[in-house]
Amino acid sequence: MSNSSRSVQPKVIGIKPVLLEERAPIETERSKEELVQEAEQAKEHAQLHLQQAREEAERIKEQALADANAEREKWEQERERVVELAKDEGYQIGYERGREAAHQEYERLLDDARNIVAQSKVQHDEKVESAEETILQMSFNLASHLMKQTLDERPEAFTSIVRAAIHEVKEQESVSLYVHPNFYYSLLQHKEEFQQMLDHQLDLAIYPKEGESVYLCILETPFGRIEASLDSQLNELRDSLFSILEEVRSSEGQSTLSTY
């Protein structure tokens, strides 16, 4: 059989099917899931720190109040001891010693107020600043209450305050002393003593005067007026204590900045 007679068979080209592999989810979807998970973890971590900060602030507040209560109980015990001692001795120990005892008691109460400031000051924490002021105010109020209670129980202590005020104006030509009616008659008994503190030729007049406080003590002279009332002295002390607190905070803030 010749080549020409051969039948030409068609060549079949087979096309293999192309199988597409199933790929894993694309990277962007997996990244979103990871970001959501990390965000949840960060949120939980922040909430945990916030709760810890709140618990720490509450602990500091409770500790500060506990310290103030302990100091108040200490003062109450000391006050009762002094009162009992005064009753036992009857203060029959002479005028000079009685005056010195009243003066020492007055100074001791002021020192207690200053000590409370030092004990209650908590450093370098904004959460404690309000607690510092609260403790200072509580301590000052307690000291003021104890001082006034002492004056009520021992009027001679108020006489010492008046005596010190007169000493400041002893060189004036005339002095007019204004006190509350509650103390007027008791102070009249000391007028001769007060007069001896001044020049015998000078005028000293004592007048009763109603006021908001029974611890009123005002002296008028030709050169001006002196406010020596207990409440005014306490207010000056309070302002001084809060000024000291602000100065301490300011100095601590500057010291903290210098360390960075």
From TrEMBL:
Segments passing through the bilayer: none
Keyword hit for Transport: yes
Location of region: Disordered: 31-65
Domain Flagellar assembly protein FliH/Type III secretion system HrpE: 121-236
UniProt KW keywords: Bacterial flagellum biogenesis, Bacterial flagellum protein export, Protein transport, Transport
InterPro entries from the UniProt entry: Flagellar_FliH/T3SS_HrpE, FliH_Bacilli, T3SS_Stator/FliH
Top-rank taxon, per record: Bacteria
CDD domains registered for this protein in UniProt: ATP-synt_Fo_b
GO cellular component, one term: cytosol
Entry keyword Hydrolase: no
GO biological process, one term: bacterial-type flagellum organization
Family, as annotated: Belongs to the FliH family.
Protein's job: Needed for flagellar regrowth and assembly.
The name this protein goes by in its record: Flagellar assembly protein FliH
Organism: Pontibacillus halophilus JSM 076056 = DSM 19796
Species classification: Bacteria, Bacillati, Bacillota, Bacilli, Bacillales
